[in-house]
Amino acid sequence: MTEAQKQRLESQLWKIANELRGKMDADEFRDYILGFIFYKYLSEKQHLFANKLLETEDIKDYPHVTNEEDLEAIKEESLEKLGYFLRPEELFTAITAKGNIKIDEDDEEEVGNFILDDLQEILNAIEQSTMGNESEDDFNKLFEDIDLSSTKLGRSPSARNTLIAKVLAHLEKIDFQLGQVDADVLGDAYEYLIGQFASGAGKKAGEFYTPQQVSRVLAKIVTLGKSRIKNAYDPACGSGSLLLRIAKEAEVGEFAGQELNRTTYNLARMNMILHDVHFSQFDIRQEDTLEEPMHFEERFEAVVANPPFSARWKSSNNPLHETDDRFSQYGRLAPSTKADFAFVQHMIHQLAENGTAAVVLPHGVLFRGAAEGTIREYIIKEQNFLDAVIGLPPNLFYGTSIPACVLVLKKCREHDDNILFIDASGHFEKRGNQNFLTEKHVQKIIEAYTNRGNTEKFAYAAPLSEVAGNGYNLNIPRYIDTFEKDEPVDLALTTQKLQSLESEMQETEALIVEFCAELQIPAPFTS
Fold it and tell me: What is the C-alpha to C-alpha distance for residues 472 and 377, in angstroms, rounded to an integer?
């Protein structure tokens, strides 16, 4: 598929989302459109897989198989390889045909066959087909956010049925081309939709989406010099996009993540499967990472995160944290109103000895004092885990305009006598009300991190002694001078220009007085 075809697919999917959501907010309709795209993906994947098994049989097209023994054999193979199973009558094409909506006709009152009950049974059947299998946790309640009885879809069952049938019919006309070699095309289109929904979701967007170019910075850093990563982990994984971005930079053996929001957790699992990540290769859990870490005993070669900025957590209300291996050695707990360093400490705990962690945080973590200052000093002075500090431009993230930074952490640092500072805060492209990093900006950051040299007004490798001399304050302007001197003012020339302007003004006023006299009206310059 060419880039133009990929963009066309993205445009088609976004057009469907916009045209058919009615009065529902975009972020509410997101769960439906993304869920149905996922169902179509599972259906086409099942169809292709079954047809492969039927190559030596008399009946070679799966929708025409009726023999129960054949279906049972296909089911057994499907559960092992795909992790789920769909019967022929449960395929996307079958339920869409049953809906019988003619989307080429401009008839708003058109009513097709009622399919909502059948569709709900199919979605339930997909989840139930995995019970007792290794894939059960990955599919458990995966479609729970698709509420086909919601009045947001229409006041009456008939109205809801018509809307859903139209959505399915529009999606049916789009060729996902899953049989092609490049299996990531649909996954990229799915990512595009998530990003589009994020742009209209305001503050909610931060719960599930990291801007793509910021993800690229983190992914490139944690994979630098490696073609394969044993495992990757995100303790606040949102839709899973940041984890999947790592796979574009290096081969990843296993993915792990944790997400508090239930809806976003479901989205992350769908996103993994849609990117053709086998169910045995990912382990996404739903729970509060700081309170109930689900991968506590595991260590990861790549750790990335964009946790909620300055979130509240129960540090002061949970005495167990004082003995928790993640937090106990630092002397202080992160403030209950600012969990930023709690996430950093958690990531350090999960990081393998040969691994790299990169985390997006608000700028305040670089210089705030009290408990955060104590933790920051311990990470630098006692552990020497902080490898780099990267300042990002403001207004990059949906829902907040504040500037952010990236902390890069390693347990076995190659350059253990300095900390690299990069000031990319002024390097961005403005698009509307949002700032963006271009590929050129991303490359400049990565080159500076890789080369680790001093670049005027952009990068500086600060000796640990200098950082200590600054009281372990990491505020970037302390290390990189970005001050731009104003050009000297020629006072004599400026005076001459002012005198010239004064003379021109007097001539203009005299001309206006003459015109006013001719018109026999009072001049504005006379009292």
Answer: 6
Q: Is the whole model's pTM more than 0.85, yes or no?
A: yes
- Beta carbons within 8 Å of 322's beta carbon, 6+ residues apart: 328, 333
Type and span of the H or E element at 408 = strand 404-410
Handedness of CA 360, 366, 370, 371 (dihedral sign): positive
Please name the helix (run of DSSP H) or strand (run of DSSP E) that holds residue 451, with its range, or none: helix 439-451
Between CA 12 and CA 177 the distance in angstroms is 14
Find residue 457's DSSP bridge partners: none
Closest CA to 143 of 31, 255, 18: 31
Contact indicator for 279, 300 with CB cutoff of 8 Å: no
Contacts of 429 (CB under 8 A, 6+ apart): 435, 436, 437, 438, 441
Give me the phi and psi of 55, to 5 degrees please: -55, -30
Under CATH, which architecture does the 202-478 domain have? 3-Layer(aba) Sandwich (3.40)
Contact (CB, 8 A) for 149 and 196 = no
CA 142 to chain centre: 19
| Cβ-proximal residues to 13 (8 Å cutoff; 6+ apart), any chain | 33, 37, 174, 189, 192, 193
- Mean pLDDT, each 10-residue run in order, the chain (527 residues): 73 79 72 92 96 93 96 96 97 94 58 89 97 95 93 89 90 82 70 76 58 94 97 96 95 97 93 93 96 96 95 78 90 93 98 98 96 97 98 84 92 96 92 88 97 94 97 97 72 86 86 84 73
357 to 44, 288, 305, 345: CA distances (angstroms): 37, 20, 8, 11
**How far is 26 from 57, CA to CA, in rounded Å?**
46
User: Bridge partners of 410?
Assistant: 356
Q: Provide the residue ranges of all domains of the chain, joining segments of one domain with +.
A: 3-198, 202-478, 489-527
Measured CA angle at 248 (ends 247, 251), to 5 deg: 45
Cα 233 to Cα 259, 397, 458: the distances in Å are: 11, 21, 30
Does 1.10.10.10 match the CATH number of domain 3-198? Answer: no
- Burial track 308-323 (b if 16+ CB lie within 10 A, e otherwise): bbbeebebeeeeebee
- For helices 184-199 and 26-53, the axis angle rounded to 10 degrees is 170
The CA distance from 399 to 397, in Å, is 6
d(CA 386, CA 359): 11
Q: Quick one: CA torsion of 201, 204, 209, 212, rounded to 10 degrees?
A: 50
